[in-house]
Design goal:
It is a single chain. The chain has 67 residues and is mostly helical. It has one domain (14-62). It has three helices and no strands. α2 (31-45) packs across α3 (54-62). The longest helix has 15 residues, at 31-45. It is elongated and about 40 Å long. The two termini are 26 Å apart. The mean pLDDT is 87.
Length: 67
Amino acid sequence: MEDKTARLTILIDPRKKTLFEEICAAQDITPSQVVRQMIREYIVEHADGRELPDWLVSAASKGRVKV
Protein backbone atom coordinates (compact mmCIF):
# COMPACT_ATOMS: atom_id res chain seq x y z
CA MET A 1 0.00 0.00 0.00
CA GLU A 2 1.50 3.30 1.08
CA ASP A 3 5.28 3.20 1.50
CA LYS A 4 6.07 6.64 2.90
CA THR A 5 4.21 9.23 4.88
CA ALA A 6 4.04 12.99 4.62
CA ARG A 7 2.85 15.47 7.19
CA LEU A 8 -0.28 17.54 6.57
CA THR A 9 -0.85 20.45 8.93
CA ILE A 10 -4.30 21.96 9.21
CA LEU A 11 -5.74 24.78 11.26
CA ILE A 12 -8.97 23.99 13.07
CA ASP A 13 -11.09 25.70 15.69
CA PRO A 14 -9.98 24.40 19.11
CA ARG A 15 -13.56 23.53 20.11
CA LYS A 16 -14.03 21.40 16.99
CA LYS A 17 -10.66 19.74 17.57
CA THR A 18 -11.62 18.81 21.12
CA LEU A 19 -14.98 17.38 20.04
CA PHE A 20 -13.34 15.49 17.17
CA GLU A 21 -10.74 13.96 19.49
CA GLU A 22 -13.40 13.00 22.05
CA ILE A 23 -15.57 11.31 19.43
CA CYS A 24 -12.59 9.48 17.95
CA ALA A 25 -11.54 8.26 21.40
CA ALA A 26 -15.08 7.03 22.09
CA GLN A 27 -14.89 5.00 18.87
CA ASP A 28 -11.38 3.73 19.68
CA ILE A 29 -9.93 5.26 16.52
CA THR A 30 -7.29 7.94 16.14
CA PRO A 31 -8.02 11.30 14.55
CA SER A 32 -5.31 10.54 11.98
CA GLN A 33 -7.07 7.34 10.94
CA VAL A 34 -10.33 9.23 10.41
CA VAL A 35 -8.66 11.99 8.40
CA ARG A 36 -6.77 9.49 6.21
CA GLN A 37 -10.03 7.64 5.49
CA MET A 38 -11.83 10.87 4.62
CA ILE A 39 -9.00 11.81 2.26
CA ARG A 40 -9.15 8.40 0.54
CA GLU A 41 -12.93 8.74 0.09
CA TYR A 42 -12.59 12.30 -1.20
CA ILE A 43 -9.99 11.27 -3.77
CA VAL A 44 -12.16 8.42 -5.05
CA GLU A 45 -15.31 10.57 -5.21
CA HIS A 46 -13.57 13.46 -6.99
CA ALA A 47 -11.05 11.66 -9.20
CA ASP A 48 -12.76 12.97 -12.37
CA GLY A 49 -11.81 9.98 -14.49
CA ARG A 50 -8.26 9.67 -13.16
CA GLU A 51 -7.06 6.11 -12.93
CA LEU A 52 -6.65 5.19 -9.29
CA PRO A 53 -4.76 2.26 -7.80
CA ASP A 54 -6.94 -0.66 -6.70
CA TRP A 55 -5.66 -0.48 -3.11
CA LEU A 56 -6.92 3.10 -2.82
CA VAL A 57 -10.37 2.35 -4.20
CA SER A 58 -10.84 -0.75 -2.03
CA ALA A 59 -9.53 1.03 1.09
CA ALA A 60 -11.92 3.92 0.52
CA SER A 61 -14.94 1.63 0.15
CA LYS A 62 -14.04 -0.72 3.02
CA GLY A 63 -13.39 1.83 5.71
CA ARG A 64 -16.30 4.20 5.32
CA VAL A 65 -16.56 6.36 8.40
CA LYS A 66 -20.07 6.16 9.86
CA VAL A 67 -21.53 9.55 10.63
